[in-house]
Q: What sequence folds into this?
């Protein structure tokens, strides 16, 4: 089978898990052609991401002329495919708030994708997230192109799944991947007649890159990794740290990442007077993130909205407990056996979790981390996840997650 992946912006600092999945499939002997809609506008730090950008073919970035030429000639070479696709296009347009121009853009991309995959002999296209890339794959399939599948993560794509035409995308897919039981339940609300198509395949990490710590982290040090944005709720951390730093003056939270909330978080740090306790370090490459997590005593992630964050898996794989929130699929992995889990949006709850971690002995923290590592080995090993995905690609409706 010839397989292609189609992403929106790729590679990005937040899509290393997709690169890892592709690498695992290729290690199993399944080559993957990379497509993406556009370049990411941010700066890539990881050498592997930089190399991945060179392997990726873009539908929009630097490709406008070929995109238009394909659209102009498609009625001549594929008139019946276009006619067959128009009802699907109208359905997606009717569901979407994106407007006519945006959806025409998706159709133009689909025409080009159909032609490129046909020229390359691609049998199957897999996408991540059920948004625009999956819309393009859906339309390309109806134009006469390859069958498609997609992985649903959340949270944004599940806020208004009808607007995203999620039910239609599931119905017409070869199969659909949910990363958690919670996610699968939300998908089936939109596609109740297609339960057999919706498989749970957990996101995985390459455990060969994550050596379990055999000594405790630095006492009082926590790390928070992720884009600085409202969903991640890092802006609540300074107030929570201010509540605990008198009792625990050694407390230190390092924020690894950057984003639109940076100025707000900096203002909160100043407002609460915790400049000596909360630092924004900016983005780091993958080895840098692993090093920072290993140095810390625990990972803190107080998000409002997530699917099931890869960074939680990474921290647990490194033998560090986590402090995080009871949202979406997180409770399927995290409980008091491997960390602390609390309601989202509460400064008091963050502070109490920090206190509990700070009061724990090094032995207790190590025991929590060891249990976390065991859970990751059991359910989030990237090799096992890739094997399940490969099996689904070959036999879509027979895989058990």
A:
């Amino acid at each position: 089978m010839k397989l292609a992946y189609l992403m929106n912006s790729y590679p990005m600092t937040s899509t290393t898990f997709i690169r890892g999945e592709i690498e695992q499939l290729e290690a199993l002997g399944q080559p993957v052609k990379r497509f993406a809609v556009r370049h990411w506008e941010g700066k890539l730090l990881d050498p592997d991401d930089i190399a991945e950008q060179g392997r990726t073919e873009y539908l929009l970035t630097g490709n406008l002329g070929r995109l238009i030429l394909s659209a102009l000639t498609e009625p001549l070479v594929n008139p019946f495919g276009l006619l067959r696709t128009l009802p699907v296009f109208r359905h997606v347009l009717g569901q979407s708030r994106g407007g006519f121009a945006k959806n025409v853009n998706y159709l133009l991309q689909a025409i080009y994708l159909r032609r490129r995959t046909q020229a390359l002999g691609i049998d199957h296209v897999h996408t991540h997230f059920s948004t625009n890339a999956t819309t393009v794959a859906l339309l390309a399939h109806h134009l006469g192109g390859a069958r498609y599948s997609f992985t649903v993560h959340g949270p944004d794509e599940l806020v208004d799944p009808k607007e995203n035409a999620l039910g239609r995308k599931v119905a017409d897919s070869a199969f659909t991947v949910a990363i958690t039981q919670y996610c699968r339940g939300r998908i089936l609300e939109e596609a109740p007649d297609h339960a057999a198509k919706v498989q749970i395949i957990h996101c995985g990490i390459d455990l060969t890159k994550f050596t379990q710590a055999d000594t405790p982290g630095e006492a009082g040090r926590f790390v928070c990794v992720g884009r600085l944005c409202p969903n991640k709720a890092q802006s609540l951390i300074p107030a929570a740290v201010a509540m605990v730093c008198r009792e625990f003056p050694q407390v230190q939270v390092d924020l690894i990442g950057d984003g639109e909330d940076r100025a707000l978080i900096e203002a909160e740090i100043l407002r609460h007077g915790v400049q000596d306790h909360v630092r924004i370090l900016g983005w780091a490459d993958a080895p840098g993130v692993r090093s920072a997590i290993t140095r810390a005593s625990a990972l803190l992630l107080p998000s409002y909205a997530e699917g099931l964050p890869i960074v939680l898996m990474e921290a647990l794989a490194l033998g560090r407990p986590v402090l995080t929130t009871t949202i979406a699929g997180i409770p399927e992995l995290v409980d008091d056996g491997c960390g602390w889990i609390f309601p989202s949006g509460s400064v008091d709850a963050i502070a109490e979790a920090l206190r509990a971690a700070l009061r724990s002995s090094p032995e207790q923290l190590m025991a929590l981390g060891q249990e976390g590592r065991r859970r990751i080995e059991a359910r989030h090993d990237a090799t096992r996840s890739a094997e399940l995905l490969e099996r689904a690609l070959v036999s879509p409706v027979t895989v058990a997650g």
